């Protein structure tokens, strides 16, 4: 499970060092793809395969499902961490998410997310105000 917030830097070759707490789960490889709100989703190979199985079950007759599938999978890239635990974030994903040198990597349960730090801080500031008010409505029975 991916938890926490980390602040790695993007190097000149477009690589980041994976947070130490994520390394075991991601050692076998990662799949990165476009995330909602212009971040990069990072899945372990195992988790991405499970997600892909669910996606495959979407009806091909649904335009909304086809559209989502195309955008989600066309941006996906399989990467393997090097011996220094670095992975390259493909340029298309760096551009999509507006990544600069300063990054924020968050754990989001079954995935990690890579955000440009300024974008993350703006998103978090916007969402924190409503956080306590929406927990019960969004996830019934949580508290």
Protein described:
With 143 residues, the chain is of the alpha+beta class. It has a single domain (5-116), classed as 3-Layer(aba) Sandwich (Chemotaxis protein chec), CATH 3.40.1550. Helix content is 40%, strand content 22%. The chain has five helices and eight strands. It has helices at 23-26, 45-56, 63-74, 91-97, 117-138; strands at 5-6, 15-17, 30-34, 40-44, 77-79, 86-88, 103-107, 112-116. The strands form two sheets. A six-stranded antiparallel sheet has the order 1-7-8-4-3-5. It is found in: Cytoplasm, Nucleoid. Belongs to the MraZ family.
Enumerate how many helices there are, as a single number. Answer: 5
Count structural domains.
Answer: 1
* Residue share in β-strands: 15-25%
Walk across the major sheet and give the strand order.
1-7-8-4-3-5
Report the strand count. Answer: 8
Instruction: Please tell me how large the radius of gyration is.
Output: 16 Å
CATH superfamily label: Transcriptional regulator MraZ domain
- Helix/strand structural class: alpha+beta
Largest sheet: 6 strands, antiparallel
Mean pLDDT value: 92
Outline, from the CA principal axes?
Answer: globular
Please state the second-level CATH architecture. Answer: 3-Layer(aba) Sandwich
Main location: cytoplasm
Family: Belongs to the MraZ family.
Subunit structure: Forms oligomers.
Organism: Mycetocola miduiensis
What's the layout of helices and strands?
Layout: E1 5-6, E2 15-17, H1 23-26, E3 30-34, E4 40-44, H2 45-56, H3 63-74, E5 77-79, E6 86-88, H4 91-97, E7 103-107, E8 112-116, H5 117-138
Antiparallel strand pairs: 1-7, 2-6, 3-4, 3-5, 4-8, 7-8
GO molecular function: DNA-binding transcription factor activity; transcription cis-regulatory region binding
Family: Belongs to the MraZ family.
GO biological process, one term: negative regulation of DNA-templated transcription initiation
